Structures are given as C-alpha cells and as structure tokens.
Amino acid sequence: YLPNGGFYYEKTQLNRKSVSTGATSSAGFTTSANFWEYLAFNRSNTNLGFMWFTDNNLYRSTNLSAAPPTWTSVFTFTAPVTALHSCIADVNRLYVITNDAKIQVCSNALSATPTFSTFNLPSASNSLASIVAMANDANKVYISINNKVYYSIDGGANWTNITYNLPNVNHRKILAEEMGGTEEL
Questions:
Q1: Residue 177's closest CA among 145, 129, 140?
Q2: What averages of pLDDT result for each successive group of 10 residues across the chain (185 residues)?
Q3: Do 105 and 62 form a contact (C-beta atoms < 8 A)?
Q4: Measured between alpha carbons, how far is 81 from 117 in angstroms, rounded to an integer?
Q5: Which among 1, 28, 118, 143 could disulfide-bond with 68, CB atoms 3.0 to 4.6 Å apart, if both were Cys?
Q6: What does the buried/exposed string (b/e) look like for 13-42 if buried means 16 or more CB atoms within 10 Å of the residue's CB?
C-alpha cells in the first residue's frame, strides 16, 4: 500500500524487496527466529504492520516506509498463531487465531502494551485458518477454519456457520473487499 508499490517480504528471509526495483534491503527484524510465519498490513495506515514469528512473539511496526523499519515485540502468545488480521475499519483492532481453537481480539493494538480478549472458536483451528474483518465495520468478521466458514457480528464473541454448500475442502484464504464498501455475501 506504500507509494511506488512498497515492499514485499519473503517468508524464509529476514529482509524485504522493493516492488518497483527488486532491490533487497533490511526488514529491520531483531529476532532469533528463523522466519516469520504470518503477517498483516493495514491499508488505512500504510506504515502499520504486524508479524508473528515462530518464536511465538508478535511484532509491530509503525514506520514501514522507513529504511529499515523498526519492529518491536509487543506480545507473546502461549499457542502458535494460525491467522492474523489488522482491521481496516479500526487500526487499533487486531484479530489473531491460535491453534488451540481460540481467537484473540485486541482493541488497543497501537498501545505500548496491547491487551487481548480471548474467545472460543466454533471448531478446531490447529493447522489452517484465515480471518478478515469488513472494511467498514470492525465487528463483522469472517473466518475460515479447515473446511468451515463462520461469521461474527460482535467482533468474534459469537459465530454463525455459513459454510452452506461450499465444498468439503480446506479453505486456505478468505478475502473481503478492502475499499470500505457495504456489500457482503
């Protein structure tokens, strides 16, 4: 989302590459983990990003356009993360699915010490999950967990199964329109 295309991050690398030139530069990571596992950027605040590394730490950057950006460890999870989403409608809202069938919801993600509320998920999330909040409403959240799709209107506290007649396959990614439209399913 940055001007001139910004950067992309390769999962097994601790650097970043320019979209426009392909030049490699430091991503600014100071972690002993070998690679990041999940990342979330935010179209509303193009300098905001979150990454979860295999050391169970959540890192945040608020200066992604800097060379290099600064990443700060802001939270340590007790279970591995399977999905991460930075909410466009509210940049302070961060959704995290962990592999213990929980969703962690943060409403102060830009705080020096973010706090998370924990809710149960309707099914296991041990290996494959995806999450997205609507661009115009931080409380409307869609998740895919393994072969099911669920919807919440209260920020992840309660879930409705909307799998309907989708094929019984692992759903790898759920997407939503990011420009703030009001259309849903």
A1: 140
A2: 73 81 83 76 88 87 90 92 93 94 96 96 84 92 92 96 86 72 58
A3: no
A4: 15
A5: 28
A6: ebebbeeeeeeeeebbbebebeebbbebbb
Do 185 and 149 meet the contact criterion of CB atoms below 8 Å apart? no
Residue 96: other Cβ atoms inside 10 A: 28
Give the pair of three-digit tokens for residue 69: 């950006």
> Which residue is listed with tokens 């309707």?
122
- Cα-Cα-Cα-Cα dihedral sign, residues 172, 82, 34, 71: positive
What's the CA gap between 72 and 41, in Å, rounded? 15
Q: What is the C-alpha separation between 56 and 54, in angstroms, rounded?
A: 5
Cα(103)–Cα(82) distance, rounded to whole angstroms? Answer: 10
